Amino acid sequence: MAGAVVSTHPRHQLDAVIHSPIRLSIVACLAAADKAEFAFVRDTVEVSDSVLSRQVTLLTEAGYVQARKGYVGKRPRTWLSLTAAGREAYTKHLAALTAIAATPARVEGKADV
């Protein structure tokens, strides 16, 4: 197709599910461990239980996070972990962000490179 624009800018590789600041923070937290308790992630990301719950639901629906419920003694606990798909998506998202940061302005005459 003549005149078609080729999508080469790295922003096209960003993952829309992960790109939200809260979801990116959750995935980054989970990427550092095999699993983490819900309360640990909540406190690390600095959100409320309800906000974390909603964002984890979206990440779970995307296949990026797995939630496992259980007990420690008689107290209920929820552990969160990244799935293989979640780790891959996070790695690709970070690579796209890095590429964006490394991409110089290409508008002729508009940037001093």
Automatic annotation (TrEMBL):
Superkingdom, taxonomy of origin: Bacteria
Pfam families noted in UniProt: HTH_34 (PF13601)
Coiled-coil segments on the chain, per record: none
Domain Winged helix DNA-binding residue range list: 22-100
InterPro entries in alphabetical order: WH-like_DNA-bd_sf, WH_DNA-bd_dom, WH_DNA-bd_sf
Gene3D superfamilies: Winged helix-like DNA-binding domain superfamily/Winged helix DNA-binding domain
Identification of the protein by name: Transcriptional regulator
